[in-house]
């Protein structure tokens, strides 16, 4: 696992993503359901690019739909199922913020294994937020960016690269996502990825 000190966020910076008392409500859910919680994907990518994430992408080892149902119950938000097979759901909060929950991908036992099953490397980044939710860290403490497959280097090089050779066979729609992210981020598509498409 690559955890370069150059890529960290203060607890205060990550906490600022959670409006009002959302972190307290997520902490309540965490106490009920237990487990690790990670900010992942586009949320982390956007922060590293200096952009405000449009939503919060959270990954838990299992029971993502239960996390979303409990957050809905506590906040009065709207629950949206994103896929039973993938164990993913969204809660649309009254503030207009979406909180997406997903469980580790099939067969993944750790966050690193989960990241290795994602679509493109710049979306395969994570920041552990479980200590933030439980109050076991201070505002000035640093939270590392977890990168097990080179997404940080690809972000620096402004390139879109597929995570693995099976990525497109696992989900052919990922081919379209490569070009969508290249256009949205104004990145180039890495040559081997382009060849696979």
TrEMBL record:
Q: Which CDD domains does UniProt cross-reference here?
A: NT_ClassII-CCAase
- Stated EC number for the protein is 2.7.7.19
Q: Which UniProt keywords apply?
A: Magnesium, Metal-binding, Nucleotide-binding, Nucleotidyltransferase, RNA-binding, Transferase, tRNA processing
InterPro entries, alphabetically?
A: NT_sf, PolA_pol_head_dom, tRNA_CCA-adding_enzyme
What is the enzyme's main class? Answer: transferase
Where do the Poly A polymerase head domain residues begin and end?
Answer: 37-161
Q: Name one GO biological process term.
A: tRNA processing
An MF annotation (GO) of this entry: nucleotide binding
- A Pfam match: PolyA_pol
Q: Does the keyword Metal-binding apply?
A: yes
PANTHER family, sorted: CC-ADDING TRNA NUCLEOTIDYLTRANSFERASE (PTHR47545:SF2), MULTIFUNCTIONAL CCA PROTEIN (PTHR47545)
**Family listed:** Belongs to the tRNA nucleotidyltransferase/poly(A) polymerase family.
Task: Please give the name of this protein.
Answer: Poly A polymerase head domain-containing protein
> What phylogenetic lineage does the species belong to?
Bacteria, Pseudomonadati, Thermodesulfobacteriota, Desulfobulbia, Desulfobulbales
């Amino acid at each position: 696992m690559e955890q370069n000190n150059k890529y960290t966020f203060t607890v205060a910076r990550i906490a600022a993503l959670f409006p009002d008392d959302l972190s307290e409500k997520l902490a309540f859910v965490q106490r009920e359901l237990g487990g690790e919680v990670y900010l992942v994907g586009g949320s982390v990518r956007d922060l590293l690019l200096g952009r405000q994430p449009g939503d919060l992408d959270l990954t838990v080892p299992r029971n993502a739909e239960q996390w979303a149902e409990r957050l809905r119950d506590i906040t009065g938000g709207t629950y949206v199922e994103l896929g039973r097979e993938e164990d993913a759901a969204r809660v649309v909060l009254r503030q207009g913020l979406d909180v997406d929950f997903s469980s580790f991908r099939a067969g993944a036992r750790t966050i690193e294994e989960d990241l290795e099953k994602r679509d493109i490397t710049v979306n395969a980044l994570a920041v552990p937020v479980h200590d933030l939710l439980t109050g076991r860290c201070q505002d000035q403490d640093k939270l590392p960016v977890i990168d097990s497959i080179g997404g940080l280097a690809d972000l620096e090089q402004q390139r879109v690269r597929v995570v693995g050779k099976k990525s497109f066979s696992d989900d052919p729609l990922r081919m379209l996502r490569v070009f969508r992210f290249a256009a949205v981020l104004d990145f180039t598509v890495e040559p081997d990825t382009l060849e696979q498409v």
